[in-house]
Prior knowledge:
The protein is an alpha+beta fold. It folds into 2 domains: 152 residues, Jelly Rolls (Sandwich); 81 residues, Arc Repressor Mutant, subunit A. 46% of the residues lie in helices and 22% in strands. Strand 4 and strand 5 form a beta hairpin. The termini are far apart.
Amino acid sequence: MSERAKSANRDFDKRGFLRNHPIFGGLRPDLLERLSSHALRQAVRSGTTIFARGDPGTSLFTICSGTIKISSPSPDGRSAIFNLISQGSVVGEIALLDGLPRTADATAITDCELMVIDRRDFISLIKEQPEIALRIIEVLCGRLRQTTEQLEDVMFLDLPGRLAKTLLQLANKAKSASGRPKVTLTQSDIGKMIGMSRESTNRQLRAWQDRNWLLLERGGIVILKPDALGRIAAPAEGDSA
């Protein structure tokens, strides 16, 4: 580790981060102090596998900065992306709670700063403050709702509809200096989120670019006309591609 990285590790305010966290913010001061003393800071580069499906679920990861994708590989080498998780959220909560192996892969798609909490410390914390368990249940329920919505999209939306809806969801989370939402995920990864090949994804995106609905730039997709994409994402209220 470089001297700069060591300095950043010393300077990182774990208690301050946990105090403002939506899950851990309500902890008593003594529990917050104990958790921050056990939690470890981890910096990972873009492209790093944080854990893989089948790994032991020995820890919970809280994202201090950056974005992680949750995916599952197939026997033939393909993969499906289930979720993108960013700053303030937690990763690895399922295996942490039930003690069973990880259910999916977690990969950093940007440089990330993580806080790692050991399962032993977390379970002890839940026993002393059960409200934390309720907050984790809320996280699990939110992700179950998202999974249910993804299943409905597969059943009821065609590929252009799924692509348009995914672009709008990603753009809603994006920040751009120009004021226009920009999706920085690769076309290949977007295709994996909706079950579309990279070639088909690129073909549809170029068709929408020809309509001036979006702009394909190096490093991302700029959304120009979200209302037009919204009509594609809700075919009952508009036309299809």
